[in-house]
Design a protein that fits this description.
388 residues, 5-stranded antiparallel β-sheet, 2 helices
């Protein structure tokens, strides 16, 4: 009997039926509450079948948030493989968590939050090739700090702060987003300005073998985009989409990145219809062929087709307060998740991505305050398992 049992187990594993990767796993969404008295990650269960969210759980980041730092950057929460990274803008640190696949609603803090060597960290990027996380600071001491990622020890500093000169006044955060290109051979940071000054893209070369980040960035000034904000690569190292949350201006643009020079050339200006504050953009080609651009000042989501460089659809959704919209977004399988910035009734909205088409259909509006109580802020959005 025992022999037969082991033979059955062997057969099931061999056929893939008993492979743990084939088991049903709880999915999860994460954002941070940015509380100055103690920052927390809020985890929500994602239903495997219909994509809806429920069962929020709060976990301390070990750091502090910064009051009023709402909607300041994309990628303040990043999930990659079984790691979660989040910025703590109030005490200038970065936290790292390990996500237990059997219990993703309770991410486990690894080590202690690491100082980001500057002020007001707003965004983080992770390279699985180099097992390296890099955070950008946007405050009075702005620049990039990188860390080796250790499952046992947490975040281990990799060199000094890579400084980025400020353009904006001291009261404003200057850097916005930070991303690796898909091959992890370069690291990009968006830098905003005001008035007639151009926005800037900083590109740092990354050694393919050692992961060393160059301290001599290539800087591209973009006169037509003054407030370069969020960034996403469009499936390759060569094409980068950015947003520009300036009213009545170009809402977004696509850049062509040349290698090894890292020179960025403006390829396409995207005329987002009625753009007021086009802040966020998400693109996951294995789930949708469209990039979705989020407006922070009105409830509109614009679908952009990067294959033909055309806007194909605009989805509107209900919000209680005027002048509000979305603050961060992710795509997971056939659903798009969107945090909204209504100060009186923030939501995590869930939209079904229409198969084969650009349109979105709202299927849930999860009320944050009624589920976990009033929190000072809500920002960043990550999904586990990650789609990167």
């Amino acid at each position: 009997m025992m022999l037969s049992y082991f033979f059955l187990v062997f057969l099931l594993v061999h056929l893939g039926i008993a492979n743990p990767a084939n088991y049903h796993r709880t999915r999860a969404a994460y954002f941070q509450d940015n509380d100055p008295n103690g920052n927390f990650i809020v985890a929500l269960k994602i239903d495997e079948n219909d994509g809806t969210v429920s069962s929020p759980v709060r976990t301390s980041t070990g750091g502090k948030g910064l009051a009023g730092l709402l909607a300041i950057s994309q990628d303040s929460v990043v999930v990659w493989q079984d790691f979660l990274f989040t910025t703590n803008a109030g005490d200038n640190t970065l936290s790292m968590f390990w996500i237990n696949p059997n219990d993703p609603l309770h991410p486990q803090l690894v080590g202690q939050p690491a100082p980001t060597l500057g002020q007001t960290p707003v965004s983080v990027a992770y390279s699985p090739q180099h097992r390296m996380a890099c955070a950008t600071n946007g405050g009075s001491q702005s620049g990039v700090a990188c860390f080796t990622v250790s499952r046992r020890r947490g975040l281990i500093p990799r060199g000094p702060l890579l400084e980025i000169p400020r353009i904006l006044p001291a009261a404003m955060v200057s850097t916005a987003d930070i991303v690796f290109n898909p091959s992890s051979t370069a690291l990009f940071v968006s830098v905003g300005s005001i008035g007639q000054q151009p926005g800037q893209l900083y590109a740092f070369a990354v050694d393919r073998f050692t992961g060393a980040v160059s301290n001599n960035p290539v800087v591209t000034s973009v006169p037509s985009l003054t407030l370069i904000f969020s960034m996403n690569f469009l499936g390759s190292d060569q094409r980068l989409i950015v947003t520009n949350p300036v009213r009545n201006a170009t809402g977004a643009a696509v850049f062509d990145i040349q290698y090894p020079s890292l020179k960025a050339t403006l390829e396409t200006n995207i005329a987002v219809p009625n753009s007021m504050a086009s802040c966020w953009v998400t693109y996951v080609p294995q789930f949708s062929r469209y990039a979705y651009i989020i407006d922070a000042a009105q409830p509109e989501i614009t679908a952009f087709d990067p294959r033909i460089d055309q806007v194909k659809d605009v989805t509107t959704y209900p919000l209680n307060s005027t002048g509000t919209g979305g603050v961060d977004t992710r795509i997971d399988r056939q659903w798009l998740y969107l945090l909204t910035n209504d100060p009186n009734a923030p939501k995590l909205d869930v939209f079904a991505v229409q198969q084969g088409g650009p349109g979105l259909k709202m299927i849930q509006s999860f009320d944050i305050f009624s589920s976990i109580g009033v929190i000072p802020s809500w920002m960043g959005l990550g999904i586990w398992p990650s789609s990167f």
